[in-house]
Amino acid sequence: MDIREIRGLSDEKLRDQLEDLKEALFNLRFQKAFGQLEDPNAIRRARKDVARVETVLRERQTQKEGTNG
Prior knowledge:
Oligomer: single chain
Strand content: under 5%
Shape: elongated
Order of helices and strands: HHH
Number of helices: 3
Radius of gyration: 15 Å
CATH class: Mainly Alpha
CATH topology: Helix Hairpins
CATH architecture: Orthogonal Bundle
Largest sheet: none
Number of strands: 0
């Protein structure tokens, strides 16, 4: 997922996306534990996607706090 795509989403959609990404990461970890993971880089990509979404949400939260405070 590209950062430009992430920044274009609303806060609500970002939260939904974050939930989906965390679930996908959970499933990838299970696949790895059972030896069924075909792409070992998938876990790394999923973790980075989660981090990107969390970063954008945090940036927006600090912007709101800065304008309100």
